[in-house]
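Q: Given only this backbone (87 positions), what sequence would you predict?
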């Protein structure tokens, strides 16, 4: 059942990834388990990484990340800037 949820979330993510990445502040999109109060749950979700979490009222409507996409919950996680590491 978990595998089915991951597969479905991955397909939904694939369809919406470009659109999500065009939003300001978004630095990555993936699939993972939702975090609640600092603890990982067993709920599969689309994880949207942002530089900084900002209250919705301070974001342009077109840049707001939806809480659910095609029935898959979305978890917005502050990660900071993401850069490739050079060895």
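A: Predicted residues:
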């Amino acid at each position: 059942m978990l595998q089915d949820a991951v597969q479905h979330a991955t397909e939904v993510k694939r369809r919406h990834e470009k659109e999500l990445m065009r939003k300001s502040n978004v630095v990555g999109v993936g699939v993972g388990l939702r975090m609640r109060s600092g603890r990982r749950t067993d709920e599969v979700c689309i994880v949207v990484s942002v530089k900084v979490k900002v209250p919705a009222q301070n974001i342009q409507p077109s840049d707001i990340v939806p809480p659910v996409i095609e029935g898959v919950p979305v978890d917005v996680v502050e990660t900071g800037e993401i850069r490739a590491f050079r060895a």
